């Protein structure tokens, strides 16, 4: 059973099609591991065992009857509890929605099911995904897969931990400022934030000004490509998605050839002030590996503007519009950290929001100029490995024992810019610190060129053996 749950979706799908692995046995193994590890990790809000077993039986019948099989036929997946799932409780991590059961799937979840994947659970998120630390009044804290003393990251902490712990091979996450890439890096997983519209976002309230993404969370680059292939494509609900040409992401993720002729911009800091020694060492070693693969490396000159003020104005005013009515209710049970940020947004005017959108445009155009002469930007994903599990959102973080300052600006300055610009950004594991905590490497590519990003990340992944390690649970 343990061996079965350690296989990637790319292998499982082939073995299911060849009748070497049973979808029923695989689903039973996933559910058994989820039940065993949930008290340790706390990475699920809901486990949909009955629905999963029924879907697995249908999937197995289709295999035995020789019916055409979907791209992810028989593969169990979990979905972050911000993503609507028909008939399965979706709480948004909120006490105000603890008994909410959607009637329809989000487009991304529906497409996973259409590809034959089996929903088995809903993973933890801070309330409405409002921070990079996964805890909420509804369920408590989610621990890191590698250390009970460290945070899982967030806001897709449960999704990352479930995959890292070998509970399920793949999961749906979301990313509004790094919420896929942060926990993926903190747990040694692959996390992609694709370009705007590549995977339709059918739940976002402001589709036109959107900076949030429904994303894959996986252990391998190929599994990310499989999920992207399943979920991508135009949909009437998302104007950004309309007219996007389809790509063969699976072919792109095969680690064929090398990076000869590719030019990589790199930045250790991207304007950050402090980077952990172990992160610096791992980043330099990863750059050397990319050079060995044939890439030309050029250090990025000039710093980006501080992203946090731009992101906060756009993000917090969105939250105020969405959640202020809950805050004003007599039975308000919102997380204090979410309330504090909603209240903060009352200070900003419509003109402040529009100025932030002007800065968003300026930033997009600046990043576009980078890719006129380069193929990729490579950075660390986080300035240090996972924070202590009791880290407060509003307290300063420490890096190598030194107080570094505010969490967002100093832990993940590398992720927020590309939510704002929409460029694809993917994190892969590039090593471990002296405590055994994973370190992430971020690849950023040209707008809507996910295929190229997948290829570079796959070549790097294949050149190392970082994924041979599993957390000791």
Key features of this structure:
alpha/beta; two-stranded antiparallel sheet; 15% strand; Amidase signature (AS) enzymes; 473 residues
Q: How much of the sequence is in beta strands?
A: 15-25%
| Extended strand count | 15
The CATH homologous superfamily corresponds to: Amidase signature (AS) domain
Biggest sheet descriptor = 11 strands, mixed
Helix content: 25-40%
Strand order of the largest sheet: 1-3-2-6-8-7-14-15-11-9-10
**CATH fold descriptor:** Amidase signature (AS) enzymes
Q: How would you state the average pLDDT, rounded?
A: 97
Return the CATH architecture.
Alpha-Beta Complex
State the domain count: 1
- Discrete helix count: 16
Write the layout of secondary structure elements.
Layout: H1 2-5, H2 9-17, H3 23-41, E1 44-47, H4 49-64, E2 76-80, H5 107-114, E3 118-123, E4 135-136, E5 140-141, H6 157-164, E6 170-175, H7 181-186, E7 190-193, E8 213-218, H8 221-231, H9 249-252, E9 263-266, H10 277-292, E10 296-299, H11 307-327, H12 336-344, H13 350-373, E11 376-380, E12 397-399, E13 402-405, H14 407-411, H15 416-421, E14 425-432, E15 438-445, H16 450-463
Parallel strand pairs: 2-3, 2-6, 9-10, 9-11
Antiparallel strand pairs: 1-3, 4-5, 6-8, 7-8, 7-14, 11-15, 12-13, 14-15
